[in-house]
Design brief:
Number of helices: 31
Helix content: 40-55%
Strand content: 5-15%
Largest sheet: 7 strands, antiparallel
Shape: flat
Structural class: alpha+beta
Amino acid sequence: MLNGSGAMNYTFGAYSSCCYFWDEAGGMWSSQGCEVGRNTSRQVTHCKCSHLTWFGAKLFIPPNAIDLSSAIKNFANFDESPALLATFCAILGMYLVALIWARRRDLKDTSKVGLVAVPDSDISDLYRYEVTVYTGRGKAAATTSNVTLIMCGELGESQAVTLTDDNSEVFQAGGIDSFFVTTPNPLGALCYIRIWHDNTGSNPSWYLNQVAVRNIDSNERFYFLCYRWFACDEGDGEVDRVLPVAGKEELAQFMYLFRSKATRDFSDAHLWFSIALRPCRSLFTRTQRVTCCLSLLLCTMLANVLWYQVPQSQKEDVIFESGFIRITWHELLIGIQSSLLVFPINLLIIQIFRNTKPRPLHKDDSCEVKSICSRSVTTPAIALQDITTVTRETPDVVKSWTHSERRLDSPYKQRRGEEKKNLDTIERPTEQPSPVSIESFDYVDGAKPLFKSPAEANARKSKKAKEHVGKVLLPWWFVYVGWALCLLTACTAAFFTMLYGLTFDKPKQHAWLISMFFSLVQDIFISQPLKVLGFALVFALVLKKPQGENDEKLNSELAKDRQWLEEHVGQRDKRRNAISNDKPKYLPPDPSALQRARLQRFKERKMFEVIQEILFYALFVWVVLVVAYGHRDPNAHVMNQGLEDVFSGRAKHDHSVPDGHSLLFQVSDITSFWNWTEAVLIPGLYSESWYNGRSDKPGFLADHTSWMLGTARMRQLRVKAGDCKVHDVYSGYLAQCNGPYSWDTEDTTPVFRPGWRPAPSNYSTAQNAWKYRDSSELRSLPYLGKLALYSGGGYAFDLGKKEKAMAMLAQLKRDKWVDRSTRAIFVEFTVYSPYTNLHCVGYLLLEVLPSGGTSPFSELLVTRIDRYAGNFMIFVLLCEILFVLFTVYFTYKQGKEIAREGVAYHFHEYWSWVELVLSGCSWTSIVLYFVRFGINKSTVLTYHKDTSVFVNFHALAASDQVFGYVYAFVAFFVSLKFLRLFRFNKRMSLLATTLKCSAKELAHFSIVFGLVFMAFVHFCYLIFSTELYIFHTVLSTVETLISVMLGKFSYERLLQTNRLLAPFMFFFYSIVVVFILINMFISIIIENFQRVKSQNDLQSNEYEIVDFMTEQFRDWLG
């Protein structure tokens, strides 16, 4: 287009296309003899070649164009893009906070890595083992108790070894702890281990995943799977278990491999989750992971902004389409190009961090080496020395546990069975190692040992040595290369992202940031977890091989290093003193003590569950009520009443109107309807001048405060002429009759001539009042009136401006637009009050009876379309998000309880049904919220297309109304469920137990009461329905008889209808229902109340928890 200087501005889009053919002689793609034709577009490449062969094309979709010189100048106006500025400030702030937190956690992790020499180990022992304990993740999985282990093999068993570390905490949630254990005698192939804890400390409960034992000399591994609780208050309540060795079949089971692989990848391979779940043994630190996440995020933002809303042709080449999934070549190419921009550099950075050696310490830093060599991933390269075989004299007497003396082993003698009998024939080795090496054993299905020849043993040993060779790591200084690449990539991506973002206008900028946010959330919480689960599935189905740990080589070197052994492993004399007793240092608790601890722990957990439930549910109730009352404005009723007064005629009643029919609710026929439109409707829809002669802006109503959105519309529904048959007796007097309205009898003739005269087939008119349009054209919903359910179609027209509306109504009155076939007339409008930010969707309905009378009706639905205006409504939005999170949590909790208890048992209680209904209503309200959001967006867009025509907001108001109804049920059941929290109160529980005990009797009583009550309902309806309005339907009769029970009834009106039957009915109803049945109901309640109160067995035993809580609070207060 021409600008002010007369120059012509053009916008160009560039893309690159090439043509190639496969050169069979050269074995490569070549472009010789081929050129790109002029018919090439973004979707199709036109190739012109001078030869026939296999050929292909390369298509590159260029990113959004940018002028660097002008874009850099936009940095001076960065404050004009608050959303972009806030996004980058938030990213930088969260990165710095996460970096500080990650650095602190990395420092803690250094004390958790490496090998721990247990106090019971002896440097002179020939047989050394690495025991690795895997603690589960989750709530209360860690333990503070003392864990003890006994290893039992085919050649013997070890002493009781306490797995502890004086320098750091062990057995933390998700932790992997390795211990160095020695034995004076060989154990052979391990058969089982016995492991227990003493149930001491502030958190004795412990969840054990598995134990892995590795013979350091032979490098043989034994796995003992558990995945159970060691706790008096979890699982089966045991703290002492015997775990058999896992065979090859168990280690190759799908569930074990899938669970172990998925757990490992979620904590290490998932870049975002691994910030919090990083394994302590990984060389990839948390600070490095946080920085890599920053680089990945900024690169993804750059790729997103480069190709955001890139122009494409309307005709797209669809690759795949199924339901909501649709993939085009354009999207595929952009995805490939974005991936090539984001992933190679970030994958290189991550691999550098993962495969870089720790930085070695200086040799003279001996103090530092001593402090961290046992539990630090940054252990220096210690000069290893081969330990020669230590010749020991066999002690004359070593006091130890014999099989007859060890009471700890007695429960498990039978489990060894025939294996112990076979072991008795094997000669015990002396102080020297047995001539038959442990390597001479092999396994069949991981259980039965078989002797092998020396050649086979040597071959297996060489094979294990090859397997133990670790991967090649980069030099330690490569970590600086990784940091430089990471920070450079992040800064470059941030710079160009801001550069592109500043070229967008605000709507496009906001849309891009929102799409980027949802894309990030989808990638972190959906795509990446699915990828992890997919890899775990393939690993479990295809590879079927358990993975080793990252620091096995480090632990092996430490276990063979003489300097480390001398510093961390005790001497023989000290060990003798440690094992001189008959019993280990920490025994498992005896059954009586365990039972007491179990009861005490049960009460403590119950107490904390009660306190947590009360506080948590009180917060949920508060959130529900904030959301409920946040969407209810006290001004809504004032607006509703004001508009009703304006359009009914009560606000400005003109007594000069003929025959006094100016009020809406006084309209009784067609004539009074036209009088109401002239005297009330038109003056109400359009504002008049103020007292000082000034006029409002066009669009305001007569109240001078409400603004009309678009214009008002009048719609008529008719029935077909002669839709009912005149009886033969009166056929000579009546030509036709018109019945009541129904969807079958509705007149849907496309067009009429004025006066409802039939029109020829080629007739057309510009007056919409005589043309029928269905509900899809009018965008109207069916409407329930007093007499019928009316469809959304009809003969409708817009009123427009005041002069046009008056002239049109006068013309329609002359043409008899309302006649005997008319059954309903709608006046529809939508107004907005800028002072209260409220909208009102109005329906003024006149229902015409077949007899000629009318029934006026009005409905004004007040809603708020722009919900989140003001600080308080932003707070309500946050509460709505909390409500969704609470709903997800309670649904998950209830589903978990159903899975644990079973459907039949779970729904045996009354409160389970209340929770089910509450969850259903909550999810229904959430769905309706998003439905309303979509309707709101669509309706507002329709209104902005043309603000001079009528736009129907009824669907929006109706969805908001239904949402309010459902959410009212949510508030009701939430408040009702709050009573359950008082079940620990003796009086409240007494009432609940009384109703539970009397439920059967009340059920039988309700049958008798219902039959007697319905007998009186039928009698009253059949006798008084023709004379009293309060008995005109069965439902109104039920309401009236209930009012009689409450004493709200006029006996004089009843007596005037029938002087004989009225006193008879009233007398017997009062005697039978009011005096007899009601008192029987009260008697049932009182009798069961006395029975429950006198029998302690019927009362709840949860009062003990209240007493226990009282005692605990007294102890805490001193």
